[in-house]
Design goal:
heterodimer, A: four-stranded antiparallel beta sheet, globular, B: mainly alpha, ABC transporter involved in vitamin B12 uptake, BtuC, two-stranded antiparallel sheet, 4 strands, 3% strand, disordered N terminus
Chain lengths: 245, 315
Amino acid sequence: MSNPVLQLKNIHKAFGGVTAIENFSLDLHSGEVVALVGDNGAGKSTLIKMISGVHPPTSGEILLDGQPASFADASVARERGIEVVYQDLALADQQPVYMNLFLGREPVKGPLRLLDRNRMIAETEALVKELDVRIPSSRATIRDLSGGQRQGVAIARATHWAKKLILLDEPTAALGVAETGRVEATISGLKARNLAILIISHSLDQVFRLSDRICVLRRGVQIGIRETAKTDKNEIVSMITGVGQ
Amino acid sequence: MLSTLTSRTGLQGLIVYAGFVLIFLFFAATLGSESFLTTKNLANIVLQTAPATVMAVGLVFVLSAGEIDLSFGAIVALAALVAAIAMRNQPMIVGVLAGLGSGAAAGAVNGLLVAYGRLPSFLVTLATMGVIAGIGRSISDLQSIPVISPGFISFFGGGSLAGIPSLIIWTLAAIAFGHLVYRQTRFGAHVLAVGDNPRAALVSGIKVARIRLSVLILSGACAGLAGLLYAGRLQSARYTLGESDLMTVIAAVIVGGTALNGGKGTIFGALVGSLMMGMLNNGLILMGLSVSYQMIIKGLIVLVAVAISLRDPNR
């Protein structure tokens, strides 16, 4: 396997005197989907926040392409090619799809630096077609879309800008069965783009459908990492709950 | 087809044009060509509306960013008074810069308190409205201050360029500039994003605090320009200027299709809304209604406008 895109080495995170994450290590390779599972409060969101630059780790190292990465804030992580699909999607509901895709990074043209809407629309059309996100139009307003379509837009945005890594926080928590299927198909399609994907999910079925490896956290402690093909739900459940080991 | 049309423009987007036409037809029918439907009167409506339209441009940005400015009416008077006082013994340009500068500075105080003091704009501008109105009264001793610079009076008041009155040129310039910035620049897009979903804007790298500061400075500067237009047209400045514009302009902007709670708006709608309010004002006066009844009717229009804005089915 190639060199890891992202390496977490002995990450430790404490808020005040409370330890949130203890001695966490993980290598993520491009083209790989790793699922992060664990009960509520296990530290999954804290890990995502450290990787995306929202909180720095208390100790330990984050390496991006082998280089030590210290993200001053989330925008630095983004510039380095890390994109996050937040649980609440972080979409501007009253704006069109194409404006959301380019939110904060709108291309401009000419000496007056006017918005290049045609370019945004064209790139959006191409991208949603490629990712097979079925929306009525790139000019549609977000609030007129279904939950699955919104999720599709949020993933498309991350895909468009991610150069190395996409973090997905509960991508299908609010979706129905059919919509979950569509979003999972989109996520599976991302592997072909040679991005590393870290996904948080409470659905073990989904984790087994999508991931190559599963990393289990329990109360801030890394319980273990398993290859999805070489484990089963019973083992993962007992790792999550600590029962039956 | 109709549903896609209404979902893109929203119900409010159509209301303003229908309201404009209805009010126009009502006054045309009841007042007729004796008073209302004369070229002079219609032109007068446009001229009288110029300051309100300029204020409305600023307010579209503020509301779109999810904030409110209640102080712009007071800023109008402050800017006019500062300009008039400065021009007592200084050239016109000093008066213009002092007027615009005081408007922008007042807006900056609002903006700093909102963006970096993290205080709600409603309360901040409610408080600064009182402070600014007090400063206006204090620097003028409750007296009118005459503006005698003929250049200023022509440029901001009764003059014209190629036959077009300068107040109309100012109106068109404010609308064109406002529309360009609002619709065609990254700043305009970021204003909408901040008003729509501040968290999404923040995680997308948009400087949310800076946007909030900017829209309130812009609103203050627009109010400052409106103050200069009043001072030019009336050839004097007085602490009461802009007092009655607060409600009128908010109504004009909301009737025009700008959402009260951010993320959506239009500059052209604000122009039409402003002209509509001006027409209403003019027609009610021509009908011989007393000031008290004018206030009541305008207040009711604001109520209807807010109701329509909040009843948008797509919200």
